[in-house]
Amino acid sequence: MTDFEQLPAPLTPPDCDLRDFAFMPLDVARLRDSDLAIQLGAEEFRAAVLLWCAAWHQVPAASLPDDDKALAALAGYGRVVAEWRKNREGALYGWVKCDDGRLYHPVVAEKARDAWQAKHKHAHDKLVDRVRKANKQREQQQLSPWIVPSLEDWIAAGLPLESELFPAESLTDSGGRIRKSQKQRAGNPPENPLKGQGQGEGNKKDIAAAASLAGARDPADDPPPSEAQWLAAQEECAAGYAKLLNSLEQVRGKRSKFVSTDARLIAWERLGLTRAKLVEAYHLAVAERDAAEDQSPVNAGFLDVFVAKVLNPPEGQSAAGTRPATGAGLADPLAWATTASGISAKGAALGIVQDEGEPFPAFKLRVHAAANLSDQDKARLRADFGVHA
């Protein structure tokens, strides 16, 4: 094992961004009684505190680049790197290098993680409050209430929008007008971001100026992404799909197994599937499960049919194109067995109707039996659609 492999993992999440927090918490007694305050000289102490402040607004927060030129500038030495090196050891007292190649301070990281969690909790609380108000109206309209995932599940799902958590048709009122309140992101509303105490216009300008300098390179100068980069981007998007779907299924009390390596999820990314469309397809799939009185979790094969429907209404059958078809442009011959409406239509074609009081699962079994499904068809229905015939 190499020294690099022995380094610890970063102490804050890679996307931990506190640049809109103007104030960093300071544990006064902890600092006063620390070895840093007692053992170090004044110059080293000054540089150490400046580095804490600089790390607070780095991304990830609580980290610094392990580069003497950058550290000299951040510690107040400007371009005089030789002077910085005289005080480097004391100024970096307590810092540790992690396996991403950056330096982290455990105490600053502790405060940063608390602030990052509080930032998400604030956004989640506002989401819960908006949904609570919306549920009052839904109750009056005799609609089922919306259920918000827990804070942990919401974060794990990638901070999904309200439009991504709930059916697209629920974003309109009885008159068909879009509800303005649903246009806001479930996270921090862009027009009112959560700020650290004392945030003002000056700090906004500083952040904007720093961002403009960091992005000064002309994108046209960048080389086109390689095939490996494209594949990595597709897998990252598929991982986002999987997290969101697993979270939605958990809200239903189901144990789902959506994974980022599933060919269907990767194919959805290639088709440009948005999270809003994905959630719309998911709720269509859940409605079909409920109509069929099927308690099975929604899986990728079953959901794929509904993804195709929202992307290519009304003829879509398979978004991923992973299932065999009867010929060019023809639908999958087993698609009827994946939905309650399809089973009813197939039954009608076979002269079979659901008897009064007959549970739908029993009716479905009669239709499946009359359709003379082969063992291969039954196996494919289980594997691709999660349907037991």
**Low-confidence parts, pLDDT < 50 over ≥5 residues?**
168-222, 321-330
**What is the domain tally?**
3
The geometry reads as: elongated
Number of helices: 16
The H-and-E topology, N to C, reads as HHHEHHEEHHHHHHHHHHH
Radius of gyration: 28 Å
Tell me the major beta sheet.
Answer: 3 strands, antiparallel
Number of strands: 3
Strand content: under 5%
Q: Give the helix level as a range of percent.
A: 40-55%
Mean pLDDT: 74
Sequence of strands across the biggest β-sheet: 1-3-2
Distance between the termini: 51 Å
In terms of structural class, how would the helical and strand content be classed?
Answer: mainly alpha
Pfam families: DUF1376 (PF07120)
InterPro entries: DUF1376
Region (Disordered): 170-202
Protein name: DUF1376 domain-containing protein
Short characterization:
The protein contains 16 helices and 3 strands.
Question: What are the key terms here?
Answer:
389 residues; mainly alpha; 3-stranded antiparallel sheet; 16 helices; 3 strands; 50% helix; DUF1376 domain-containing protein; DUF1376
Describe this structure in words.
The protein is mostly helical and 389 residues long. The chain is built from 16 helices and three strands. The chain has a three-stranded antiparallel beta sheet with strand order 1-3-2. β2 and β3 (102-104) form a beta hairpin. α12 packs across α13 (300-311).
Provide the fold topology:
Layout: H1 28-32, H2 35-39, H3 42-56, E1 63-65, H4 68-74, H5 81-91, E2 96-97, E3 102-104, H6 106-140, H7 151-156, H8 162-165, H9 201-214, H10 227-251, H11 263-270, H12 275-291, H13 300-311, H14 340-349, H15 360-370, H16 375-385
Helix pairs in contact: 3-5, 4-5, 10-11, 12-13, 14-15
